[in-house]
Amino acid sequence: NKPNLVVCGASLRIPNTTFTISGTSVACAVMTGTIALLFEKYPYLVGKPGLTMAILNASCVYFPTYTSRDANGYHDQTGAGNFLYDRFCQAYPTFSAITTPASESNAQILNRQVVMSAGQTIKVAYFSIVNATGDKDETRFSDIDMRIMYNGQMVVHRTSTIDNVEVIEYTATSSGLHEIQLQKYLSEAGIEEDVYLAYYLS
User: Are the C-beta atoms of 168 and 81 separated by less than 8 Å?
Assistant: First the structure.
């Protein structure tokens, strides 16, 4: 019931005409074409929707006027924020991809270290794919939570329940090594699970 992200779809001029068009249908066409260009630029993304979504979520820009966040880091009306092509390209090299065993639960499944300076902001996202058959009644999500640690202390975290996406934006108050951790608490699917993580540092 909420978008993953927002992309421009207002007052776009049709090439070689004076007509402009607006609406979600326009925004979807813009995003679809952009994803096709990204697949051409980064062939490794083809066939990996979870990885594509992780990088998209990490590289979008929150709207400053929409400050409330759900448990997974999304805003009800704007999701992870405004899509920017250049930020996606900068976030692409940061991704991590893992496959967790079906039986694994109550375990740390990923630990990514990032050096940050005081005042730097990181936006990090994970996205998981479990039993994605296209039938909503067959799709299952494990309970995976994301957190950022500094000097052994948790500085920010997300604790959404049985969700397949979480987003964190955090501005470092101290310089040094930070750790992005994913903790899997409960496996709902009973099958192997592909989990993807990406971040954008500014």
Answer: no
The overall longest dimension of the chain from CA atoms, in Å, is 59
Any idea which residue has 């699917």 for tokens? 189
Q: What is the pLDDT of residues 44-69, one digit of tens each?
A: 999 999 999 999 999 999 999 988 98
Give the C-alpha separation, 90 to 202, whole Å. Answer: 10
Distance CA(187)–CA(191), nearest Å, equals: 8
Amino acid 43: pLDDT: 97
d(CA 116, CA 112): 13
| Alpha-carbon gap, residue 94 to 166, rounded angstroms | 16
Residue 137 scores a pLDDT above 80: no
Q: How far apart are CA 92 and CA 198, in angstroms?
A: 7
Kindly report the three-state secondary structure assignment for every residue of the chain: CCCCCECCCCCEECCCCCCEECCHHHHHHHHHHHHHHHHHHCHHHCCCHHHHHHHHHHHCECCCCCCCCCCCCCECCCECCECCHHHHHHHHHHCEEEEECCCCCCEEEEEEEEEECCCCEEEEEEEEECCCCCCCCCCCCCEEEEEEEECCEEEEEECCCCCCEEEEEEECCCCEEEEEEEEEEECCCCCCEEEEEEEEEC
Write down the mean pLDDT value for the chain: 89
pLDDT at 5 over 90: yes
Note the pLDDT of residue 187: 65
